[in-house]
Hints:
The chain is about 60% helix and about 5% strand. By secondary structure, it is mainly α. The chain has one domain (about 20-410). The strands form two sheets. A two-stranded antiparallel sheet has the order 1-2. Helix 3 runs antiparallel to helix 4 and helix 6 (about 205-235) packs antiparallel against helix 10. The longest helix is centred in the middle third of the chain and has 30 residues, at about 205-235. The chain starts with a helix and ends in a 5-residue tail after the last helix.
Amino acid sequence: MFYHLFEYLQQFDVPGTRLMSYITFRSGVAFVLAMIIGMVIGRKIIDRLQLMQVGEIVRNLDLEGQTKKTGTPTMGGVIIILSILVPCLLIGNLTNPYMLLMIFATLWLGTLGFLDDFMKLKKHNKDGIKGKYKIIGQLGIAIILAGVMYYNSDMVFVHNQEIISPETTRVEDVVYDTEVAKSPETTMPFVKNNNFNYSWLTSWMGGDAAEVGGWVVFLLVVMFIVTATSNGANLNDGLDGMTAGLSAVAGVSLAIMAYLGSNVIYASYLNIMYIPQSEELVVYMAAFIGALVGFLWYNAYPAQVFMGDTGSLTLGGIIAIFAVLIHKELLLPILCALFYIEDLSVMLQVAYYKRTGGGRIFKMAPLHHHFQKPGNAGIKALIQKPLAPIPEAKITTRFWIIGIILAVITFVTLKIR
């Protein structure tokens, strides 16, 4: 709204209107605005949820401090979603396809999570909408994402080409093609020529069929990544402040990568593909980070509000979709490793339990709860350590530290080839 107003006023040489043309300025405003909105409306929404008696239903899992959380307002993800959307609508470029798609995805995922929380409260138990419907919703936004990237003529990139010295066989320079490209390509970590085309996997089909096959593979990858990341964040949301903190760390990393990839000079230095118009994603992610900081004001231990599935499903989905849009989805197994480990811990625990007729690998799953349980206390699990339960706040802080380390490693992969 204000972006387009200031853009219009520029033709009249109104002082200060050019500020809105700078991504760094708008990103800073988006961050501050989202943070303030989160803090201001957060208190009002928490009070409203308490009046409506929208409290968390906590099952007794014999965890320290768990019963004290019963009745804490949930569905606080509404605070995050509003804090993201308002700055984006006010200062975002609403003609930019990347911004529009992220706003749409936020609403889609937020609605899916809200319905899940609503059904839990309606049934007065921990069972929300059926798992298959949740998966269908996640796959739906993944299909829309891949479809828009395939059909939208503005969502393109420019290939980076290396100039190799014949004497030293080292890269002397990185140049870009004169024409934009539209193909299912992404950045591959740990390899020298780091552009990976999914069509290479279907090259046996030959000709145009191989290209179409590559887009199909790309679709399948996107479906898997969106579902795994969204559900991973959902499973990770069990301790005060943990998911919000980890999502903010991932958000900072993705915002920097989006900024670098949208600037031809920085993209050339890192030898990554240049993505025109994707700089608008930095504004969105700045709002995303600001919203999480504002939410943490109330969600940090001891939490005054929980995000619920309204928040956790949305956060994981946003991170996955954002990474796909900047062609960095193959970096997510490093950046969001903790989310995927949470996924894996549940799948392994369930599979082992069924196979052994009641055995366990971890004292409890998802993995973060394993550290809250005492070892050798009557729980027949393969992994008993740590024997002493770790306080919730310390587990959260350690997960944040690991998340920061993973973010650093993610950036390092762009230069280690």
